[in-house]
C-alpha cells in the first residue's frame, strides 16, 4: 500500500515537474506555454480524481482547488468554475494575452483546446478571434502613434498644446491618461484581412517554432504580434541565470571592468552556453 501511495504521489506531481522545466526554457517561446500548461494540469488532475483506484483523493482535490484559485482568471476564460474566494492577484491571468500567445505558437495553435467541450471550444475560439483583432488594432495604433511622435515638429507641437490648453481647461477629463485606452479604428475590410490571415495560418501543416518568422512576408500581421508577445518569458528564471553568470565575471580582482565590457562578456558567456 505504501508503494502504491508513493507511485500516486509521483504521478500527481509529474506534470508539475514538466511544467517547471518547460516554462523556464531559454531557446524557445515560453509565454505561449502558460495557458496550455494550466489547462493540461487541471484536466490531468480531474482525470486522476475520477479514477476509481485513486488513494490520494484529498491531495488531488487540494491541488485542483489551489490551481483554480492561483490562476482563477484563466480558467474563467474557458468557463471552468473557480472558487469565489480566489486570490485577487490571480486575476492578472484573465488577460487575453494568455489565450492569444498559444495561437501564435505553431506548436500549439488550437490543439491545446481539444479537451474542452465542443460548445465551449467554439465560444473560446470566437473570443480568441475578437481578442486577436483588438490586440492588432492596439499594436498598429501605438506603432503609428510613436512614428508620428518621432517625426513631428517640436515647435508645432508646443504651439498646438498652448493653443488648445485654454480650450480644454473647462472640459471634464474622463480618465487620467485617456491615450492609454486609445485604439485605432479597424474597418470591416481590415478586420476581414486580419481574420483571413489568421485562418490561413491555422491551416498551415507546418509546426515549426519559427513559422511566423520564416514566413513573415505571408503573415505580416501575425508576425508583428508574435514579435511583441512571444518574446515575453513565462518566468524570471532566464534573467536570474544571466545575473548569476555576470556575478562570476565581476570578481573583486576584476573590479576595474567597465559596464560595456561586462555586457559584452556576459553576452559571450551566455552565447557560449547555447542560450543566446
UniProtKB/TrEMBL annotation:
Residues in HAT C-terminal dimerisation domain copies: 212-269
Molecular function in Gene Ontology: protein dimerization activity
Transmembrane intervals: none
Highest taxon above the source species: Eukaryota
Annotated SUPFAM superfamilies: Ribonuclease H-like
Pfam families: Dimer_Tnp_hAT
UniProt-listed PANTHER family: BED FINGER-RELATED, TF-B3 DOMAIN-CONTAINING PROTEIN
This protein's name: HAT C-terminal dimerisation domain-containing protein
Organism: Rotaria socialis
Amino acid at each position: 500500500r505504501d508503494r502504491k501511495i508513493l507511485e500516486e504521489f509521483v504521478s500527481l506531481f509529474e506534470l508539475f515537474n514538466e511544467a517547471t522545466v518547460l516554462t523556464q526554457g531559454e531557446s524557445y517561446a515560453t509565454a505561449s506555454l502558460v495557458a496550455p500548461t494550466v489547462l493540461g494540469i487541471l484536466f490531468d488532475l480531474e482525470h486522476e480524481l475520477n479514477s476509481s483506484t485513486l488513494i490520494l483523493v484529498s491531495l488531488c482535490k487540494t491541488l485542483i482547488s489551489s490551481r483554480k484559485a492561483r490562476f482563477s482568471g484563466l480558467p474563467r476564460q474557458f468557463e471552468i468554475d473557480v472558487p469565489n474566494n480566489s486570490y485577487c492577484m490571480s486575476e492578472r491571468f484573465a488577460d487575453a494575452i494568455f489565450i492569444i500567445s498559444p495561437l501564435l505558437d505553431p506548436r500549439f495553435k488550437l490543439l491545446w483546446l481539444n479537451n474542452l467541450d465542443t460548445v465551449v471550444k467554439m465560444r473560446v475560439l470566437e473570443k480568441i478571434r475578437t481578442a486577436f483583432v483588438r490586440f492588432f488594432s492596439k499594436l498598429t495604433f501605438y506603432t503609428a502613434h510613436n512614428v508620428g511622435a518621432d517625426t513631428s515638429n517640436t515647435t508645432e507641437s508646443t504651439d498646438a498644446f498652448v493653443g488648445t490648453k485654454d480650450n480644454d481647461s473647462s472640459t471634464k477629463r474622463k480618465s487620467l491618461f485617456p491615450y492609454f485606452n486609445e485604439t485605432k479604428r479597424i474597418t470591416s475590410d481590415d478586420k476581414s484581412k486580419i481574420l483571413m490571415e489568421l485562418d490561413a495560418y491555422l491551416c498551415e501543416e507546418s509546426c515549426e517554432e519559427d513559422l511566423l518568422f520564416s514566413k513573415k512576408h505571408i503573415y505580416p500581421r501575425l508576425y508583428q504580434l508574435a514579435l511583441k508577445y512571444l518574446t515575453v518569458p513565462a518566468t524570471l528564471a532566464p534573467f536570474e541565470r544571466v545575473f548569476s553568470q555576470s556575478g562570476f565575471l565581476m570578481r573583486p580582482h576584476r573590479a576595474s571592468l567597465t559596464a560595456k565590457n561586462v555586457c559584452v562578456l556576459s553576452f559571450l558567456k551566455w552565447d557560449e552556453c547555447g542560450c543566446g
